[in-house]
Structure formats: C-alpha cells, structure tokens
Amino acid sequence: MIRGLLSVLFVLVAVAVSSSLAKPEKNIAKRGKRIPQTLSRGWGDQLIWAQTYEEALYWARAQNKPLMVIFHLEDCPHSASMKKAFAEDKDIQKVLDEDFIILNLVYETTDKHLSPDGQYVPRIIFVDPSMTVRADITGRYSNRMYAYEPSDTQLLLSNMQKAKKLLKTEL
Amino acid sequence: MIRGLLSVLFVLVAVAVSSSLAKPEKNIAKRGKRIPQTLSRGWGDQLIWAQTYEEALYWARAQNKPLMVIFHLEDCPHSASMKKAFAEDKDIQKVLDEDFIILNLVYETTDKHLSPDGQYVPRIIFVDPSMTVRADITGRYSNRMYAYEPSDTQLLLSNMQKAKKLLKTEL
C-alpha cells in the first residue's frame, strides 16, 4: 500500500518536474546562449561520470571498481540539499575519484534491481563489479533504505568503504 | 559473416577507445582542473540533450516529437568529421532544436532495434514517438544503411523531414 502510494507520488513528482523543466528551456532559448548541460549535474564537476547504466557497468567490470548510482530530481529540495553536501565533501569526492565508477540519473532505468524498495529520490545504490546490486549497503531510514540526508555523509563514506570490499566471485 | 566481423571490429574499437580514454583522464587529473563533461559531446552545445534512451523515449512520447539517436565514438575519425559538419549546419541544428528529442551515445544500449544492420559508428537512427524505430529512414550506403558522411547533410535534413511525419497510431 505504502509502496503503491510511493509509486504514485514518484509519477506525480516526475510529471511536475517534466513540466517545470520544459519551461526554463524555452526561457533560456529566448534569452540567448544556453549553458551546455553537464553529466555531473552538480554532484562533482571534477569527477568523471558515466552517461548510462550500460556504460557504468562496462567500466565497473573493465576496471574492477564498485559503481555508485545516484537517483535524484533537479527540483527536489531533498536531492538539492544532499547534492550540496555531497559535492562539498572532499573525502567523498576523493574516494569516488580514485576508487569508484559513478553515475547520476534523473530518470529510472528499466532494471528493477536498482529500486529494491521503491523509486524514491534521492537514493544511492552500490553495484559490485560482479554485476550484483549491493542491497545490503543501506542508509539509516527503515522506510527508504537507500536514502541519505546531508547529515549522513559519514555513514555514506563508511558505506563506500563497504562497497570497496568487492564480493568474491566464483572461480 | 560480415555482420560477425563487424561485431568483432566494434569490440576491438571499443577496447581501443576504452584504453585510450583511460589515459587522458589521468593526465588531466595530474595537470589540474578538469573541464566538466557535457551531454552534447560537441554535436550541438546549444541543444537540449537527453542523457539516456529511457529518458529520450519518455520525452518523445510526452512531447509527441520524433527522436534522433546518434551513435558515435570519441576517437573515431569518421565520427569526428560527421560531428563537425553536423554541429556547424545551422539548418540541422535549428530543426533539431524545434522539432526533435535528441540523444547521442558512445555506448550501445541493450535494445537490438537500435542496430538494425549492426553496431557501427557513426550511425543515426530515428524513433517515432509511437516507440517504433524508423528502420525505413536510411542514408546512402547499402552496407551501412544508417551511416552518414559530412557530404550527406542535405540527405540527413531530408530524412529529418521524413521522421517529422509521424507514424499513424491505431485509434
């Protein structure tokens, strides 16, 4: 029931975002030169971001590094405050740069493994290079297990350390 | 047989690209500040690009506009010369801005409909907002039906006009 409500809420948020996104585009077009869109979307302009989940999985396997997938929405205040804390945290940014493949998405993928307890935002999911979603690496909220708030950056860092301990693959 | 060879060739190209891509990243990191990656990748910095195929399909349906998907590779000279002609062609850029949803990808999707005759680059595929891949809209090369060269911009423009005539969906 709650999950159903969350899905409905997500669709409503997505619709609201799409209508609000459509307007600024046209405004910018009328005003003059647009600023090229970036793949980082503000989550770390100095990091190398994958564009798609397929690309991210390719890099995770090729480099044997864990993958962090961030789901967010551009006009969601919870996403915005988490993004600020995330981008300003030098430890998080350094570990990501050295040891992770990273992807941020504003649209859900078709892979249901990436939404173990629903399609809310912001939500951070780790994926092992063996292609296994690390559903065991969770935040502190029992109703949204993969959500993080700005005060959770230490927990996120410790979860990143967990993700770096790769799952043993069968020989 | 030829298709098999093309697949092998694509994998080889992808491996070559991945190894050559890995190096500049590290060099840039040592030299100092990185330039944030853009979604346009030089195919039209002033256009609004979708990030993923899922997002592009969502926008195509929501806005009832045809979708153009460009497959390319960053260090493929044919992709580079086509990109230059494409980005500099004001007519193409104007029609795309007004009437199309656009996506450029350097990694293949899992959807085989997007590679009707193989996974070569550069390759331009149109998708109708009814979610139908327009396999009927082709370039001038019988061995790579969705390839375009810099001298083909007029043909591409005329194909864009074809894609704008949307398929009739059942009532």
From TrEMBL, chains A, B:
<dbReference type="InterPro" id="IPR036249">
    <property type="entry name" value="Thioredoxin-like_sf"/>
</dbReference>
<keyword id="KW-0964">Secreted</keyword>
<keyword id="KW-0732">Signal</keyword>
<comment type="similarity">
    <text>Belongs to the AGR family.</text>
</comment>
<protein>
    <submittedName>
        <fullName>Anterior gradient 2</fullName>
    </submittedName>
</protein>
<dbReference type="GO" id="GO:0005576">
    <property type="term" value="C:extracellular region"/>
</dbReference>
<feature type="signal peptide">
    <location>
        <begin position="1"/>
        <end position="22"/>
    </location>
</feature>
<keyword id="KW-0256">Endoplasmic reticulum</keyword>
<dbReference type="Pfam" id="PF13899">
    <property type="entry name" value="Thioredoxin_7"/>
</dbReference>
<dbReference type="GO" id="GO:0005783">
    <property type="term" value="C:endoplasmic reticulum"/>
</dbReference>
<dbReference type="InterPro" id="IPR051099">
    <property type="entry name" value="AGR/TXD"/>
</dbReference>
